[in-house]
Design brief:
The complex is a heterodimer. Chain A is built from four helices and no strands. By secondary structure, chain A is mostly helical. Chain A has two domains: about 100 residues, no CATH class; about 140 residues, Helix Hairpins, CATH 1.10.287.950. Classes of the chains: A mainly alpha, B alpha+beta.
């Protein structure tokens, strides 16, 4: 006799060979027992009505999302066994499909993509939908793999950017030192040009003294004239060095500015990378 | 009901590839439903099997540690897959690829267990028959069954760990 889990009251349909009536079992909570009772007096029409009522109960439980109910007690009945088997088979397939699909999706959501829906035993649309779920899982798995690659690249680019920032800061140090060196050179050049001016003055005085000495100082006048010219050449040289240094200083400053801008850009890129990394890490669940 | 002195015949039975053996049990592992494929291959009538412990179809060639793992996994509310050699009423056997899951109510409490068993790949049957032979001989080396079961359980996890996997992944990788 069919009995379902929702309606524990005993129901009976005839058994061609009623084995269980000779082996009584303890009643179990929550599950209806298929305790057969000889129902020879029931008319066939009555039995079918009973059967239909059982099927209706099971179907309505299934419609409520309870896939635990089954028709029990029909396996020995030639007339009703087939119907009960088909109803149970439908429920079994639906039940199995839902358990399988649920398990595969739950595993995928935890990054366990090896858990595929088992196709064996699944027929028709059940099988087709199982295949679809497996294809989706496959895609998820490959997405997760590319995500991992993206994460690796981001991490690489982050360390490259860090290196660039470090090098830029080194370069700024070098440029600053260059700037200081050029200032020191300018200072030295200034001293040299002062020396040249003093030498020129000295040579001028020496010339005056030589003229005053008359014929005896003529040779000395030539020397003083030479010294004056050398001092003049020195002055010209230091002037051109000064011009070069000023130009170099401007270049150094431009370089320092360019490096600083570059460093700022790299830092901004680093921030973008970090944001991407954070959003990739949020996808962690599917890996 | 199976007589206690059923001896394995070592004759194998088979069921069609597009069929699934289905059974449900209550929380104590007593059968509350068995589909017609189950009844056919195990050789029981529904009335004989309902209310019986699921171990009624346990084959003596199966190591205890596999069922320990199964129940531990189910108690953790997880699904489990296992290759199992089951015994029919007359002592014949049939290999299955079993998928056992807890059944939950709306509040998430476990109300029973569900087992779907499919036709296993032949090569997997060979592989697991070998593994189970090893585990069984480990279990039999011990005086009491409990320490045997625990030792065999350790052997099984070492076998799987040697492959750098968890049991679940291992089952899908074979």
């Amino acid at each position: 006799m069919p009995a379902i889990t929702q309606s524990p009251q005993e129901r009976a349909l005839p058994h061609s060979d009623d084995v269980s009536s000779t082996s009584p079992r303890e009643p179990r909570a929550g599950f209806a027992e298929a305790i057969p009772q000889p129902e020879h007096l029931k008319s066939e029409a009555e039995l079918y009505r009973e059967m239909l009522r059982q099927i209706a109960d099971v179907a309505s439980a299934a419609a409520q999302g309870n896939l635990e109910a089954r028709l029990l007690g029909c396996d020995d009945s030639e007339k009703l066994g087939g119907i009960a088997r088909s109803v149970n088979h439908l429920l079994d397939m639906t039940d199995a499909f839902l358990r399988e699909a649920g398990a595969a999706l739950e595993h995928a959501s935890h990054g366990k993509f090896f858990r595929r829906v088992l196709l064996r035993g699944m027929r028709g649309t059940f099988r087709h939908k199982c295949q679809l779920i497996n294809e989706a899982t496959e895609k998820l798995a490959s997405n997760a793999a590319s995500m991992k690659e993206v994460e690796r690249l981001i991490s690489d680019s982050a360390s490259i950017a860090q290196g660039a920032v470090r090098e830029a800061s080194d370069a700024i140090g070098v440029v600053n030192r260059l700037g200081h060196a050029s200032e020191r050179i300018a200072h030295v050049v200034k001293s040299i040009s002062q020396l040249a001016w003093q030498t020129k003055l000295l040579a001028f005085n020496a010339q005056i003294e030589a003229i005053r000495a008359g014929q005896a100082g003529r040779g000395f006048d030539v020397v003083a004239q030479e010294v004056k010219e050398l001092a003049q050449q020195t002055t010209t040289a230091t002037e051109s060095i000064s011009t070069e240094i000023i130009a170099m200083h401007a270049e150094v400053e431009r370089t320092a500015l360019a490096i600083a801008t570059m460093s700022k850009t790299v830092t901004q890129m680093q921030e973008i990378s970090a944001t991407i990394e954070r959003s990739v890490l949020n996808q962690d669940g599917v890996r | 009901m199976r007589l206690p002195d059923v001896t394995p015949t070592q004759i194998e039975r088979f069921f069609p590839e597009d069929e699934v053996i289905v059974s449900k049990t209550d929380l104590k592992g007593r059968i509350t439903y068995a589909n017609h494929v189950f009844l056919q291959i195990a050789g029981y009538r529904e009335a004989e099997i309902l209310g019986q412990p699921h171990s009624i179809i346990r084959h003596p060639d199966m190591p205890r540690c596999v069922f320990k793992l199964l129940w531990d996994t189910l108690e953790a509310k997880q699904e489990i897959f296992a290759y199992v050699k089951n015994m029919a009423k007359n002592g014949d056997h049939y290999w299955v690829f079993a998928h056992v899951t807890p059944t939950f109510d709306e509040r998430g409490a476990v109300t029973g267990y569900h087992s779907s068993r499919r036709v296993p790949e032949r090569k997997h049957v060979g592989l697991f028959a070998d593994i189970y032979r090893q585990l069984l001989s480990e279990e039999r080396r011990h005086m009491d069954w409990r320490s045997g079961m625990e030792a065999a359980g350790r052997t099984l996890s070492e076998m799987i760990r040697a492959k750098g996997m968890e049991y679940e992944e291992f089952i899908f990788s074979v």
